[in-house]
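R.M. (postdoc): so does anyone remember the format we settled on? I'll just put the structure tokens first.
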């Protein structure tokens, strides 16, 4: 198979990364993709960095064994703590969501007073904070973990009163700092964007790092002459370490279209791959 027609690999702690896969498929509609979701070991956001690094290395090794031409770490938590470790162990280009998301925020923000919301692991890693400060040393960055958002997004509760209450609670300290830009630094949060925007108000620009990551994937492949120019319909495969109840329904909501070609991969096989 020509390198160009090899699939793009994406991985995430579970189904949330389908919100990033969606952006990649929109921007790169000719590309074949392979998605790995670690549904047996989700969530990553509350686990230690060491554990998430180990899981991420297994996911990357699995995708590489399937013959992908690049790897996108769709999970914010894994991108925050494991990007370098994954880059150093595989032979294909690897990108995460943090740097593209931070670049998009700096480009959008006028005041450079920026908020970041994410999992406990992402916020604790300071990865967004450091990247934003490197890009714009005078920036002021305020971060807030919003753990309950993951369940609210999976339950499809955007605009539910419970979501609005939690959004007000989580955003209050950031809005008190007069942020003008807010990075939705977790795969699930774009599903709650209407509630987040309503609470944040019209003067705050929301950043979905998945959009900027798809653009970076495009630039990386174009730069390497690896864009797929085939006219045949792309194939999208989904590998999961567990097949949870309601996966197809919830996953289709994150992806924005129906899911086909779903396969199971055993955790034991993943742990043997590294
Ligand atoms: N995918 C994770 C992220 O973007 C959220 C879910 C989890 O905690 O595993 O950080």
């Amino acid at each position: 198979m020509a390198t160009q027609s090899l699939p793009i690999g994406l991985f995430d702690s579970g189904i949330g990364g389908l919100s990033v896969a969606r952006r990649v498929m929109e921007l790169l509609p000719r590309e074949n993709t392979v998605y790995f979701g670690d549904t047996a070991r989700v969530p990553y956001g509350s686990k230690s960095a060491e554990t998430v690094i180990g899981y991420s290395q297994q996911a990357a090794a699995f995708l590489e064994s399937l013959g992908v031409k690049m790897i996108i770490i769709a999970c914010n938590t894994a991108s925050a703590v494991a990007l370098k470790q994954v880059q150093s162990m595989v032979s294909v280009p690897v990108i995460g969501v943090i740097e593209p998301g931070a670049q998009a925020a700096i480009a959008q923000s006028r005041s450079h007073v920026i908020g970041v919301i994410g999992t406990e692991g992402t916020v604790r890693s300071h990865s967004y904070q450091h990247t934003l400060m490197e890009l714009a040393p005078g920036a002021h960055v305020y971060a807030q973990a919003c753990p309950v958002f993951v369940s609210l997004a999976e339950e499809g509760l955007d605009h539910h009163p419970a979501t609005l209450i939690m959004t007000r609670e989580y955003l209050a300290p950031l809005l008190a700092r007069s942020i003008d830009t807010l990075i939705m630094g977790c795969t699930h949060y774009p599903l709650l964007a209407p509630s987040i925007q309503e609470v944040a108000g019209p003067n705050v620009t929301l950043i979905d790092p998945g959009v900027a990551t798809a653009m970076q994937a495009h630039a990386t492949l174009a730069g390497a002459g690896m864009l797929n120019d085939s006219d045949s319909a792309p194939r999208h495969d989904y590998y999961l370490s567990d097949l949870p109840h309601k996966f197809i329904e919830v996953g289709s909501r994150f992806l924005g279209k129906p899911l086909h070609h779903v396969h199971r991969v055993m955790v034991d096989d993943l742990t043997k791959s590294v």
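R.M.: ...and that's the designed sequence above, right after the tokens. Also worth knowing: The chain has a mean pLDDT of 96. The chain has two domains: 3-96+211-271, 98-209.
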